[in-house]
Amino acid sequence: MTPAPLGRRPKLLEMQGVDKTFNGTVVALRRMALTVNAGDFISLLGPSGCGKSTALRLIAGLSHPTAGRIVWEGGQQQGDLAVVFQEPTLMPWATVAENVWLPLRLRGKSYASVEGDVIEALRLVGLERFLRAYPRELSGGMKMRVSIARALVTRPRLILMDEPFAALDEITRHRLNTDLLEMKARIGCTVIFVTHSVFESVFLSDRIVVMAARPGRVIRELTVDEAYPRGEAFRTSPEYAAHCRAASAALHEAMGEAA
Questions:
Q1: Which of 79, 88, 219, 246 is deepest in the core (most CB within 10 A)?
Q2: Long-range Cβ pairs for the range 71-80 (8 Å, 24+)
Q3: pLDDT confidence of 258, banded at 50, 70, 90?
Q4: Tens of pLDDT along 41-50?
């Protein structure tokens, strides 16, 4: 499913002047403003401590703003979003299929009633043959695929991903980047992706939101208006190199603005 061109996508949610302060003194975010449109792939790029993960947790409802608000168009509905963390956080005593079933199980759905959905989610990540395996039998990349399948099984409108590939080797990371874009295209969701990597943000995103730290805030937004699907040909193209230079310059600016 190809999203509408940038600038013609309906709004999904908006962060309006959001502040987040911890313990009354640590300012994690100040006046964070971000519009998320249906079909966007947005990377939050910035140095450590700039509030990228905090912004994700606020959107997920795992924390609440100190000031400002987050507004969903039409109101947020159950199942609108899913979260993929940096660690797979799988239940070691449960099979792959049981791990993917978990969010549906928490909604009171029996495995028999959603088995087709579980298998389809595993098929999307290429693990349908491993549904009876246990996490200890999987590689790091496979565990992350299970975590992504667990997010996909509810068919959310928005997937939040907090550096999910940071701990993986470069070859596995590249492969999962490509697979993630294919999965997004197939289910037509919106993605907000936290990363420290300029190269990853350019490959994945059509919008890169660059943040500076202390206090966390948006200082620049870059558009990567290049066609999907993207593969190795894009990684070696002059256009990719140019976008990487622009993102790198913006990141250096962000690091210089950290007070």
A1: 88
A2: 71/13, 71/14, 71/16, 72/12, 72/13, 73/10, 73/11, 73/12, 73/13, 73/14, 76/13, 78/107, 79/154, 79/155, 79/156, 80/156, 80/157, 80/158
A3: low
A4: 999 999 888 9
* Residues 117-145, mean pLDDT to the nearest whole number: 95
**Which tokens belong to 99?**
């791990």
185 beta partners? none
Say which CATH topology domain 20-80+157-259 has. Answer: Rossmann fold (3.40.50)
Q: What CA–CA distance (Å, rounded) separates 48 from 203?
A: 21
Helix (H) or strand (E) holding 239, with range, is helix 238-257
Instruction: Check: CB of residue 70 under 8 Å from CB of residue 18.
Output: yes
Residue recorded with tokens 């994700």: 56
Question: Looking up tokens 């693990």, which residue turns up?
Answer: 127
10 Å Cβ neighbour count for 3?
Answer: 19
Q: Rounded to a whole number, what is the distance in angstroms from the first to the last CA of the chain?
A: 42
- Could you tell me the residue ranges of all domains in the chain? 20-80+157-259, 90-155
Tokens of 188: 């037509």
Q: What percent of the chain has pLDDT over 90?
A: 80
pLDDT at residue 192, as a whole number:
97
Q: Helix or strand or coil: residue 221?
A: strand
Q: Which among 36, 41, 74, 29 has a CA at the least distance from the CA of 217? A: 29
The DSSP 8-state label assigned to residue 119 in this structure reads H
Indicate whether 7 pLDDT > 80: no
DSSP character for 10? P
73 is written with which tokens?
């168009």
